[in-house]
Amino acid sequence: MAHVGNRVLVFRLGGIGFILDLRSVVEVQGAVSAQLDASRSDISQGIVAAMAFRGTWLPVVDPAAKLGLPAAVRMKDQVAVVLSSLEGNWAILVDAVDELSAKDSFVSCEIPFLLKASACSGYSQLKLRNAEPFVVFDPELFYGSPAMQA
Amino acid sequence: MSRFGLFSAGALSFAIPLLQIKKILQDSRPFALPCLPATVTGVLVDEDRLVPVLDVGLLHDNGTCSEKSYLYHVLVESEYGTLALPADLSVRIVSEQKGTITTALKEYPPWVVGIFYCQEMKHFILNIDFLAIEMTQGFWRSTSEADAARRHQ
Q1: Strand order in the sheet with B49-54
Q2: Chain B interface mutation, best of A109, A115, A127, A129, highest count of B Cβ atoms under 10 Å
Q3: What does the DSSP 8-state code read for residue B105?
């Protein structure tokens, strides 16, 4: 059986592939609109809604907004990925979850020198699989103390 | 004797010294990435390396962001790394003796280093290093062309 630490969750945002270390993932929830309360947002913190989850409310972050990506699907059709952090669980909204995949099916790929300055606020690593680039999703850039200071 | 690659992209005809051309890709698929400059339409994957694709639509007189898809991508070497320029079908490699080269006059934009006239067609000889910096580092058309020219002296 594959170890969780050797696997990644592959998801899409604005047509772009992202990978996320499976160790950060608590649960994936589809059709989340009924569980979202947009009145409990805090846009200054990047929080677009709160989500009912296991008897409590989680902050929900929309990474597409921070990354400047166009909305590819409506919020009611988005999928919530619940993540763990030192400050508790939180969730991100993504357009679709593709699959779980072995970490070693992706190879590292340098961000071109000419794009480093523009990329640095949203991601710092890229990987390739079958000649397609995937952004390595770094949760700390989107929620938690370092993200709030950014 | 130097040779040039002659290309067109929409209304723009351009020439690139053959020594700067790394390769020409056909039917290659550009991928979007987050946070790309507005002047970069995507990236190509070439031998496990990413290559930024410049929006050549912005080089037209009334340049606006281009939605058009192109059949070819010309991979060119700049001082700062490889770049891709989209191009239409009319790809030709010719020696400089097949045409006439003139230096760019002052009224031409600073990304034109010369004009290559060949078979009654005018091709701008592109300053690839200039385009690499101006179009990827947020300077494109944000300052006067004189300032831009000074940055590259």
Answers
A1: B21-26, B72-78, B81-87, B49-54, B40-46
A2: A115
A3: P
Best A113, A118, A124, A141 residue to mutate vs chain B (most B CBs within 10 Å): A118
Q: Which two tokens stand for residue A136?
A: 């390595």
- Nearest-Cα distance to chain B for A11, in Å, is 14
- Residue in B closest to A132 by C-alpha: B45
CB contact under 8 A, A113 and B35: no
Check A107 against B80: CB less than 8 A apart. no
Tokens standing for residue B27: 């039917």
Q: What is the pTM of this model?
A: 0.86
Residues A46-95 have pLDDT tens digits of: 899 999 999 999 999 999 988 988 877 887 789 999 999 988 999 999 99
Q: Provide CB contacts within 8 A for A128, sequence distance 6+.
A: A106, A107, A108, A109, A134, B45, B48
